[in-house]
Every structure is written in C-alpha cells, then in structure tokens.
Amino acid sequence: MARALMLLGSKRAWVVHGADGIDEISTTGYTKVSECRAGAVNTFYVHPSDFGLTKSDPAALKGGDAQANAAILREILSGARGPRRDIVLLNAGAALFIAGRVDTVKEGIATAASAIDSGAAQQRLEKMVTSSRAEAAV
User: Fold this and answer.
1) Distance of CA 124 to the CA centre of its chain
2) Which tens digits make up the pLDDT trace of 39-90?
C-alpha cells in the first residue's frame, strides 16, 4: 500500500497496522509503519512508549454503536484523560508530523493536546456538526 501511494505521487505517507489488528497507530503495543518518503518505502515499528505514552489495555479502547462513539468523542474533546485520549493524541500527532506541520510526533501530540485542552477541537467539531445538519436539511 505504501508503495502504491508512492507510485501515485505521495511525497510522504504512513500506512499503519497495529499488532492488535486496528488500522491506526495503536497504544496497546507495537504498530507496524510502512512509510513512503523521498521515493522509497521504509518499514519500522513504533510503540506508545516511544512517544511518552503508556501502553493501554485493549478493553479501555472499546467503542460501541454510533451514538456511543459520538459520546466517547465528546468526552475526549471535553478534556477527559485516559487511554482513549492517548490514542487520539497519538494518531493526531502522527498526522500532523506526516503533514509537515510539526517536526516530531511528540510535538504533534503536544499540539493536539493543546487543541483539545483549549476547546479549539471541540469548537471545530461543533462547526462540522452544524454544517452537516444544514446540508442535510437542504
């Protein structure tokens, strides 16, 4: 997949697979990362401790139906701390890093935490919800 992204012109991308089977960077253990960058694909593994995060119990990350997952998201964006916030921060931090917005994943994690803690992330979600509802009404 990373090679296909490279051949399609991606300058930098990560294709990730958590050892626990999730399709994002996991906080339950190691995650395999295949990175396309500078015309090559390199594969390596990351662990939550590489970024200053503690390893999570998979049960602590369990979601539910759409309504339950929306409640979890609102809980995270309202500042609740714990394993669910950690996995959100890790993936957001990696996305900011890959996009070139920050120099390290750790810096991305700090930036994402600041967006949550300041309320900016929750405000952005509310704008998206309002926009989505307005579109649905049309």
Assistant:
1) 16
2) 899 999 999 999 999 999 999 999 999 999 999 999 999 999 999 999 999 9
Which residues face 36 on adjacent strands?
A: 13, 41
CA pseudo-torsion sign 41, 106, 104, 94: positive
Predicted TM-score of the model (pTM): 0.91
Beta bridge partners of 48: none
Locus of tokens 């296909």: 4
- Where helices occur in the chain by DSSP H, the ranges are 2-7, 66-77, 83-98, 105-117, 120-137
Cα separations in angstroms, 86 against 9, 47, 48, 79, 133: 31, 13, 9, 11, 29
3-state secondary structure 100-130: CCCCCHHHHHHHHHHHHHCCHHHHHHHHHHH
List, in order, residues 6 or more apart from 67 with CB less than 8 Å away.
none
**Angstrom distances, CA of residue 41 to CA of 76, 82, 100, 111:** 34, 33, 18, 27
